[in-house]
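--- STAGE predict ---
source: upstream dedup step, 1 unique chain passed
mode: sequence only
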Amino acid sequence: MAFEEQHGHAVATVTRARYREVVAFLRDEPDLACDYCDFTTGVDLRERGLEVVTHLYSTTHRHNVRLKVLLPPEDPVCPTISDLFPTADWHERETMEMFGIRFEGHPQPVSLLLPEQFEGHPLRKDFVLMTREAKPWPGAVEGEEEEEE
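--- STAGE serialize ---
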């Protein structure tokens, strides 16, 4: 586990094998008392893999802790914390849809935002964006001079 400080907040990088253990410790340790999971999301780091980022907050001590878990691109699986923090349920489902990160042990790993038949993960950097046909603007184009009659 590696610790650093970013913008005045503690940031810990943990392995996926220790993720649940660290989250439970941060929640249960009285001196830390991180009792609120603000968010869980993903980050596409391209060749390095996918990262799960979880932000915990202590309403007692008024401090934040951010956890990062780097997942290999060929196996983007992370343990769920939705049983430790019910607020993580929808965050994990959204992260699953948008980044393709599977949360092992999640009680309801089904689509939250996208239609069931949707293919791909729209927040990944390799996702091909849909385009629409370009149509000419019905007015003068900047830089062109008007024709004199």
